[in-house]
Design brief:
Layout lengths: L1 H18 L6 E5 L2 E10 L3 H9 L1 H4 L13 E3 L6 E6 L2 E12 L3 E5 L11 E11 L2 E11 L6 H25 L4
Length: 179
Amino acid sequence: MMIRHSASLILVALLAAAAAPAVAATSEATSTGFLVTVRHEVKAAPARLWAAIGEIDKWWNPSHTYSGQAANLSLTRQAGGCFCERWNAHSVEHARVVLALENRMLRLDGALGPLQALAVNGVLTFDLTAKDGGSALVVTYRVAGNETAGLPALAGPVDGVIVEQVRRLVAYVDTGKPD
């Protein structure tokens, strides 16, 4: 019996280790929330990176919009500003800007995508620092809610979306194209 129990524990540990790369940027996860942290070096200075963040319609993946068109997105980089999507007679506020420190930090409050219907809180922060003629970019997305929201199961997929968006932003800044 003890051998089976030990073998089961080893199997669970191996499966957990194999699954880890899917949520590699998720630095924290609990039953009531998670934190995604993505770090990236950018060739451009913080001023260019700051400008590019505001050009969200040029780099955000259209697959992660309601309209299917990134061109319908806008982001006003000032307190109270909207990360919004507008098309035809429809609109959605993805997040609201709560902190804008030009060329340094942009913080938005909003539960992105399907998280919006779960009545959870989400805080997305872009932290820019000058480094070696370019920038160090740290993007965090902290999501918190109650245990019934099922956040542990959503941490991996949300992690993947945030990692993808940061990759697209960096590619856009470095090459002019998000892909």
